[in-house]
Amino acid sequence: MESLSLLADGLGTALTPENLMWAAIGVLLGTFVGVLPGIGPAMAVALLLPVTFGLEPTQAFIMFAGIYYGGMYGGSTTSILLNTPGESASVMTALEGNKMAKKGRAAQALATAAIGSFVAGTIGTLLVVFFAPALAGIAVEIGAPSYLAIMLMAMVLVTSVLGSSRLRGFIALFLGLTIGLVGLDLNTGQPRLSFDQPLLADRLDIVVVAVGIFALGEALWVAAHLRRRPLSVIPVGRPWMGRGDWSRSWKPWLRGTALGFPFGAVPAGGAETPTFLSYVLEKRLAKEGHEFGKGAIEGVAGPEAANNASAAGTFVPLLALGLPVTATATIMLAALQGYGIQPGPQLMTEHADLVWTLLASLLIGNTLLLVLNLPLAPLWAKLLRIPRPYLYAGILFFASLGAYTANQQPFDLFLLLVFGLLGLAMRRFGLPVLPLILGVILGPLMETKMREALSISGGEVSGLYNEPVAVVVYAVIVLLLVVPFVLGRLRRTPLSTSAPTPAAAAEAADSDKEQVR
Amino acid sequence: MRTPGTPEAPDSATTAAPERTRDLGQLGLAAALVVIGAYTVYDASTLVVGFADPVGPKAFPYVIGSVLVGLGVLLAVAALRGDVPSPEDGEDVDLTQRSDWLTVAKLVAVLVLTIATVGWLGWAVTGALLFAGATWALGSRTPVRDLAIGAVLSVGSWYAFYVGLGIPLTPGVLDGIL
């Protein structure tokens, strides 16, 4: 297979001692930041983005792959050892994982999470190797109208299908689109929404926006509601599993992978649904007298694998279409743009060496994660006891450092503060973060594609839907918008903006959390 | 979903019966959306449409701005009809207690100070002050130790960026010493 030989080339590039060192640094930094309570993968990646500025693109990507998987893994450690899960992708892991930990089986819970993540991540990355080039091959053929339609669909999906309140989702999306407008119009060179500030006309630095919304906004929000009583942390030794744990874990790992990957690869985004489905499936399949509710290892193994497989799956739309569908993927896209690389169907051919090195690095990062983190787990667990003033002051410090290093302008720190306050307001008013950040990134791209489509057609509106793919996608969008609305009307819910049942509201609120982190 | 203690209606929110109170703080957000949307439309109206450009730079902001105004109105209606947001939960977040906006104000003040001084004091000094100030705002009462940790972090990050990545951060007053 051509893909495999290309992957082998990528492995060759990534496996030099120097590059391995960058991967190891990335994994350690990613886990370190991801383990810290209150920091999810998206925030970890956003905070660590500036570290890669001084590197060559290849090395930066290798390090990035490590940060990505490290941050994901760190999150699951937190949710097993603390009583409250930080992000919705970890809710299911925490359910049984925390009970296992309380029964003195924290070591086994961490082990099945780590090994399950490794198995799912490896299989998932290999699936990306096969699917992404194929999808890119098809995507190269489609024109601006279809591309515009697909971007619209991703936005509608992320905004209205996930999240508790469609109204608040759309508010976040359009705020993001507005932020995306700031700066010079790419066609005519006129500044928009720039208040005669040359620094604004220069377009906003996405690092500043992301760090402000994710890191500073979160730190300020936590500061306003800091828990007075510290959470109890369960002590843990070196993770290990007995023979019985292995035989109970391997099937949930594979089933979780099978569930997680498609959900990540289809632009429906989010690891919440597959982790939930995996948990339900494992509970259903459990034999008589099962341990579910009392710390069943299957309930950790399955969802954790689903989580990582879906994280790998998001690379398919990201690399093949340039479409990010999770908050973390959006930051990755911003990182790519930072190197002057525009993800999309052409990425696979124009920057093939980079893509294959990235995919190879994901495999290596995944392996390093397992090798480094099983022995280091007790050390990571100690991080959970870090005094909160230091933790959140540290987030403020590194957020400022990140914003400042981008251009060394105090003005960027001012923007950081503005977006931090916006992030705070969004958390206060229950606005999901993912639609906003998607709007910031995809808005300018959408405008470009729309203007491209209309210039080709000479201004005729038909230029927006003169491709079959575009027509089909628009039909899907209409269905997505109309069906839930009609269902809601049939059920006679008084307000279509609020979730109908408490259970649905709680679940939807969880999905908001995933978007934030 | 718990009732958030908001500065707008803290007493009524905390003493309320099981019946959930309206969250009228959302009207402020709705007003902000209308203002931002209207300004976006106004700003777009000042642009010049290029030639041989059927869409031009105006169309997109017109659409976004008007939708934002519409969403602001919808949010205002929803808020008045008793729709409440679900504030974000988290590992260190306790939504059962009143919001502590004083701490937030202190942190914002520390950040403003950082913005004002980073240019002439330099990252190594300002960063240390930022860390110590933020720990103080968050309730730590060991200023000397906090300042020492902050100094280690800021000088360490200065050298890490300079030596490791070749990015010289502003040295400021310590120019020539670092």
From TrEMBL, chain A:
Keywords: Membrane, Transmembrane, Transmembrane helix
Entries under Pfam families matching the protein: TctA (PF01970)
Keyword Hydrolase applies: no
InterPro entries listed in its UniProt record: DUF112_TM (IPR002823)
Transmembrane segments: 20-49, 109-132, 144-162, 169-186, 206-224, 315-336, 356-377, 389-407, 413-443, 464-487
Ranges where the record places region Disordered: 495-517
Biased composition (Low complexity): 495-508
DUF112 domain: residues covered: 20-438
Residue ranges the record marks as coiled coil: none
Name of the featured protein: Tripartite tricarboxylate transporter permease
Organism field: Nocardioides imazamoxiresistens
